[in-house]
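Is this the right way to post structure tokens for a design question? Let me know if I should format differently. Anyway, here goes:
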């Protein structure tokens, strides 16, 4: 301890920058600028560190300038004096130097290596107030080139031209302010991970242009950023201490901080990144007519993401490396599906993670109404982690656009289900090993349905996981929100046997009569060997069955209030995976019927135009009474289901009102005549 205190006292007394002498052959500022201009981020950062640590800074930087900060502590005005480099850190010699922007990690690494720290906002204000020379800030118009070495060199020349005529009055080594904004120590460093905090660039009247901000990632810096090194060792009331210790003190922190205690008064940089985790929690969201946004759960070790795109879902472009704080894909073709996969990247160590699953979205000029959620993470033969291809292309074939997310992104609140009117939750062969709907997902999905959301979910082992093998809460979610009961692990309890379903003749939302085939492993996806057999409950309706017998059901739908709900929602649950349906035309046809059930088409009349009478049917969807508005009472009314089966006949609509509450939920056609003119209108019974 005595030795440490002696060393600390020696550093305070020295009041000089703890760097070796500058080598006679060291690079000048302009030579250094030319050297780093073509470098990668990591190479540039390494060279900055090595040049400074080796002593390649102007000689006038070596004598530190005193600055005093005060605060009222315990009712008494207290003060501390610390020592700062006279200008923002530069590389080069006295007449050719480069005021060098850098990341906060490298700045902290340099500072720690030579017994220094960075300033706080309060310290920046005090340094400017006590500076002998204050320069007027010089700016470059905002553009995409602000972060280039060329822009940094341009600004360096502007400041040199401003400073040079003042050399005789204010020689090099004069405490100077106003030429850069500061990278500062702040509690905002850790309020959001991987951020640089900037402040300052005071005007001639002492007002900072740059308020305290952490909007940029810690890999961002532009021409305006400056590094002011502060000697960490100080004396307080005759006792040696450090700037960092004062900032961490519950009583003394007001001397140097206007943000209170700073428990970590530094930027993290020590962790050597040797590997990166493959991104799991992310989303691809429609942002605008030609723009998509990628949202990713923060990975502290990633500086960028490598983004691969495709318009067919199978052939991807070479990756584009994008800063993680600005994951925007622009200049895209409107209304075109873009498939996206990503890999985390660390620029400092040139390390790339494994590549994520595939998501997709369609850039368009309105908010999407449909979200695809991929929850199929189970590692099985045939899981190619890209089944948004089948789901997304089917949605697009129905002339609707969409965004997508992983189920982890829903759990992590990167995306809110409530933003979307309909959600397609993909579960494939997800089962007890990986969970179909986790407890968190059950909470989010049930809340979504209670608030009037529409859910399509498909998977072959949802019932097995939740109702057969699940907890009490799992069973409750399955029975009350998927409106189903588990019956068997496969039709007739025979695995790898049944791969066909047929539409039911009544009570169906599907507008087709033939058989649906799903994959046995030889049709482009994977083997659906254990498709659950289910039955409807709590208001659900069976809408499809397996071909082995008439009561072996494979799909359920529901329209109405969910348990505890306030607004009518809708559900379609398929006990076999949607993506395994073949061929493409049949898959698209099923999706169309589901989306028509979710979003009934606008009320239309037949192709003939009424010249004297207009007809309107409302409400649509309907629960109890259907009203017909026209100048005359319709006659010879027939209501049929979507198979053409007559379910109701009336000679006329008494007072233009039809009671339909006895009809089963589903889609129907009402047909009739007005003044011997036929009409035909589709409606949905909830």
């Amino acid at each position: 301890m005595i030795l440490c205190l002696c060393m600390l006292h020696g550093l305070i007394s020295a009041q000089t920058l703890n760097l070796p002498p500058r080598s006679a052959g060291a690079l000048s500022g302009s030579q250094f600028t030319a050297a780093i201009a073509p470098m990668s981020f990591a190479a540039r950062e390494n060279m900055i560190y090595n040049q400074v640590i080796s002593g390649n800074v102007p000689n006038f930087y070596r004598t530190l300038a005193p600055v005093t900060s005060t605060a009222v502590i315990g009712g008494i005005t207290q003060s501390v004096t610390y020592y700062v480099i006279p200008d923002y850190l530069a590389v080069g010699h006295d007449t050719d130097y480069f005021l060098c922007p850098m990341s906060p990690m490298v700045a902290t690494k340099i500072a720690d290596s030579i017994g220094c720290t960075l300033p706080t906002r309060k310290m920046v204000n005090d340094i400017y107030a006590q500076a002998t020379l204050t320069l007027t800030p010089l700016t470059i118009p905002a553009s995409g080139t602000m972060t280039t070495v060329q822009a940094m060199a341009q600004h360096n020349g502007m400041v040199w031209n401003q400073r040079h005529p003042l050399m005789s009055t204010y020689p090099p080594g004069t405490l100077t302010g106003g030429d850069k904004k500061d990278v500062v120590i702040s509690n905002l460093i850790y309020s959001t991970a991987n951020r640089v905090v900037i402040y300052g660039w005071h005007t001639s009247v002492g007002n900072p242009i740059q308020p305290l901000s952490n909007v940029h990632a810690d890999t961002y810096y532009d021409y305006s950023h400056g590094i002011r090194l502060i000697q960490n060792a100080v004396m307080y009331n005759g006792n040696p201490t450090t700037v960092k210790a004062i900032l961490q003190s519950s009583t003394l922190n007001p001397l140097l901080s206007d943000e209170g205690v700073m428990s970590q008064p530094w930027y993290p940089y020590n962790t050597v990144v040797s590997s990166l985790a493959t991104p799991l929690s992310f989303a691809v969201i429609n942002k605008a007519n030609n723009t998509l946004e990628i949202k990713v759960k923060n990975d502290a070790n990633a500086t960028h993401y490598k983004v691969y795109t495709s318009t067919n879902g199978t052939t991807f472009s070479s990756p584009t490396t994008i800063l993680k704080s600005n994951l925007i894909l622009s200049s895209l073709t409107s209304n075109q599906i873009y498939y996206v996969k990503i890999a985390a990247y660390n620029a400092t160590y040139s390390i790339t993670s494994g590549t994520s699953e595939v998501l997709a979205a369609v850039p368009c000029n309105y908010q999407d109404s449909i979200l695809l959620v991929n929850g199929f993470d189970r590692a099985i033969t045939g899981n190619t982690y890209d089944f948004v291809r089948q789901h997304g292309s089917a949605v697009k074939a129905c002339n609707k656009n969409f965004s997508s997310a992983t189920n982890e992104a829903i759990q992590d609140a990167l995306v809110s289900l409530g933003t979307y009117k309909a959600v397609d939750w993909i579960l494939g062969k997800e089962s007890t090993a990986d969970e179909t709907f986790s407890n968190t997902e059950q909470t989010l999905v049930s809340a979504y349905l209670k608030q009037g959301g529409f859910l399509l979910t498909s998977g072959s082992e949802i019932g097995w996981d939740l109702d057969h093998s699940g907890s009490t809460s799992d069973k409750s979610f399955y029975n009350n929100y998927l409106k189903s009961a588990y019956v068997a692990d496969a039709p007739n309890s025979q695995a790898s046997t049944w791969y066909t379903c047929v539409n039911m003749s009544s009570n169906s939302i599907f507008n087709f009569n033939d058989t649906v085939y799903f994959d046995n492993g030889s049709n482009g996806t994977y083997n659906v060997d254990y498709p659950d057999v289910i039955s409807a409950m709590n208001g659900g309706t069976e809408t499809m069955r397996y071909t082995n017998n008439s009561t072996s059901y494979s799909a359920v739908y529901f329209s109405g209030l969910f348990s505890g709900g306030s607004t009518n929602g809708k559900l379609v649950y398929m006990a076999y995976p949607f993506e395994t349906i073949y061929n493409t035309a049949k898959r698209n046809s099923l999706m169309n019927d589901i989306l028509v059930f979710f979003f009934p088409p606008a009320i239309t009349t037949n192709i003939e135009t009424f010249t004297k009478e207009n007809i309107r049917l409302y409400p649509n969807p309907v629960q109890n009474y259907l009203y017909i508005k026209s100048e005359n009472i319709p006659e010879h009314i027939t209501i049929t289901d979507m198979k053409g089966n007559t379910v109701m006949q009336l000679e006329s609509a008494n007072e233009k009102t039809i009671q339909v509450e006895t009809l089963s939920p589903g889609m129907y056609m009402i047909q009739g005549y007005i003044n011997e003119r036929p009409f035909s209108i589709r409606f949905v019974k909830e």
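Format looks fine. Someone answered above. Worth noting: The chain has 14 helices and 41 strands. The chain has four domains: 2-255, 271-356, 367-598, 616-685.
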